[in-house]
Amino acid sequence: MLDVHEAARAYAHKFLSVSDNSFTYHERLHTARQFQRVFDQATKSSNEVFTILSRENTIGHPRLGIVVAKRNVKRSVDRNLIRRIIRESFRLNKAHLPANDFVVILKRPIKDVQRDKISQQIKNLW
Q1: For the chain, the helix, strand and coil percentages under 3-state DSSP, each to the nearest 5
Q2: How much is the pTM?
Q3: Among 56, 48, 35, 57, CA closest to 103
Q4: What's the confidence (pLDDT) of residue 116?
Q5: How many of the other CB atoms lie within 10 Å of CB of 61?
Q6: Could you say which of 3.40.50.2000, 3.30.230.10, 3.55.10.10, 2.30.33.40 is the CATH number of the domain covering 2-125?
Q7: Beta-carbon neighbour count of residue 72 at 10 Å?
Q8: β-strand partners of 45
Q9: Residue 102, strand partner residues
Q10: Helices (DSSP H) in 69-114: which residue ranges?
Q11: How far is 78 from 115, CA to CA, in rounded Å?
């Protein structure tokens, strides 16, 4: 039974670029040093909701860091939703992004989290 699942997965991988649409460990900013490097010398792009800071890296692929402050979004459920939306947008657009480290910052408090509006705001910034 296991061999059937592996064969089906291998067949699907031939047609779907699953690895290209993933969001792996290596595509994230993890340490304070990595974030600080972007904050020190960043190129800034912003709209009314988000600010994206970017800085060129030597890794050869884009990486993402997310900052959603508790003071801007009180409920953890809403903060996690915003993070998920940002990650999804990055995942879908990373093929078109340069080899930079990106830090997405939520600028202002959001009272009613509406998925469509947040998705559109972040999509416009990429």
Answers
A1: 45, 20, 35
A2: 0.77
A3: 35
A4: 83
A5: 14
A6: 3.30.230.10
A7: 17
A8: 52
A9: 54, 64
A10: 76-93
A11: 10
Distance CA 65, CA 28 (A): 6
The alpha-helical segments, DSSP class H, found in 17-66 are: 32-40
What tokens were used for 112? 């009613």
Place of tokens 């699942």: 5
Q: Which of 115, 117, 121, 89 is nearest to 102 (CA)?
A: 89
Strand partners, 55: 101
- Residue 27 amino acid letter: E
Per-residue pLDDT of the chain (126 residues; tens, 9 = 90+): 556 666 665 555 555 444 567 888 889 999 999 999 999 999 999 988 899 999 999 888 999 999 999 999 999 999 999 999 999 999 998 888 999 999 999 988 877 767 788 888 888 888
Tracing tokens 């997965």 back to the chain, one arrives at: 9
Domain spans in the chain, listed from the N-terminal domain onward = 2-125
CA distance 56 to 90: 16
What is the C-alpha separation between 113 and 126, in angstroms, rounded?
A: 20
